[in-house]
Design goal:
alpha/beta; Rossmann fold; four-stranded antiparallel beta sheet; 41% helix; 20% strand; elongated
Length: 232
């Protein structure tokens, strides 16, 4: 685990966290609002998120819910809210841990290491998805077809990755737009039509009659993984 996203509206706390994490070898991105946090998470793909709840704009709880719509990244909440109700709400929304401010840096670093261990042993999504037409290697950020790498643009890859990681699930237009283009998007379905057409031309055997990347008219898209071989 190498990239951490720090989300807090207090610059001095962000500076302290960035300094302590950087000196320990982490790459750190930082955000001061919930909107910025969701945008950075979608584009920078952090390995762990440290999140304050009291943010301007989108509240921290909504950030947790937004992240949990598409990723299992560990989320450690760092908040002055010390009531049991606040902790329960954050954990129920999908946070992995809760640290109350003021906090000791040693304790927070220990919580980070614990989250790393849990996440590393939890068996995240299958790193490789194989279809008869192409193979998606999630860990290498690469698609191959007929033994050769398929050149995808960063936006095309982001869409493929999001759909493959949600294999079998309907992913709504709004979620795709916000996760790939940012929280300011939500109605630009023409973007999705253009990019999904490009992805199908590159990956589907018959782009006009897709087998893997399906459209749910008026709602969203779905990646359909191949059925397991009963002989395995």
């Amino acid at each position: 685990m190498s990239r951490v996203l720090v989300v807090d509206d207090e610059p001095q706390i962000r500076r302290a966290l960035v300094s302590n994490l950087t000196v320990r070898g982490y790459e750190v991105d930082q955000a001061g609002t919930g909107e910025e946090a969701l945008d950075l998470a979608a584009h920078r793909r952090p390995d762990l998120v440290i999140l304050d709840l009291g943010l301007p704009g989108i509240d921290g709880i909504e950030v947790v819910r937004g992240l949990r719509g598409w990723t299992t990244v560990p989320i450690i909440v760092l908040s002055v809210r010390d009531s049991e109700a606040a902790k329960v709400e954050a954990l129920d929304a999908g946070a992995d841990d809760y640290v109350t401010k003021p906090f000791g840096m040693g304790e927070l670093l220990a919580r980070i290491r614990a989250a790393e261990r849990r996440h590393g042993s939890a068996g995240d999504e299958a790193p490789t998805v194989v279809t008869p037409d192409f193979t998606v290697d999630l860990s290498a950020h690469m698609v191959t077809k007929d033994g050769a790498e398929v050149r995808l643009t960063p936006t095309e890859w982001s869409l493929v990755e999001l759909l493959v990681r949600n294999s079998g699930k309907l992913v709504a237009h709004r979620q795709l737009l916000q996760d790939v283009w940012g929280p300011g998007y939500g109605t630009e379905t023409n973007y999705l039509r253009v990019y999904m057409a490009q992805i199908r031309r590159k990956l589907e055997r018959d782009p006009a009659h897709p087998r893997w990347f399906l459209t749910e008219p008026g709602i969203g898209f779905r990646f359909v993984a191949p059925a397991p071989d009963p002989s395995d």
